[in-house]
Amino acid sequence: MPKVENTQENFNICMEYCKPCLTYSDIEGEGLFCARGKSSAPKAKKGCNCGFCPVQQKSGCRGTYYCVEGACE
Ligand code: SF4
Ligand code: SF4
To answer: Residue 8's pLDDT band (boundaries 50, 70, 90)?
Structure first.
């Protein structure tokens, strides 16, 4: 079972952190990468806000760059 729940509520929180991130794919509807897996068009790593994100903090996950590397499992 994934550590981060794939919910609309978590997606909305995610967008506060991923959307302003320089590494964000800018593909409409993409996000919550820690639960849904990597972007369909990952960018080069230019910083990651996941460490500040309450979705991550509530989970057992402590990673970064889920949009590039894939979901927290
Ligand atoms: S997963 Fe991390 S690197 Fe990717 S867009 Fe979100 S905050 Fe940025
Ligand atoms: S940990 Fe990163 S990918 Fe996961 S919800 Fe937070 S900002 Fe989005």
So the answer is: very high
- Ligand 2 binding pocket, CB closer than 6 Å: 10, 14, 17-18, 32-34, 49-50, 53, 55-56, 66
Alpha carbons 71 and 73: distance in angstroms, whole number: 6
Give pLDDT, residue 63. 95
Regarding pTM above 0.90, the answer is: yes
Distance, in Å, from the CA atom of 58 to the CA atom of 49, rounded to the nearest integer, reads 15
Ligand nearest to the CA of 20: 1
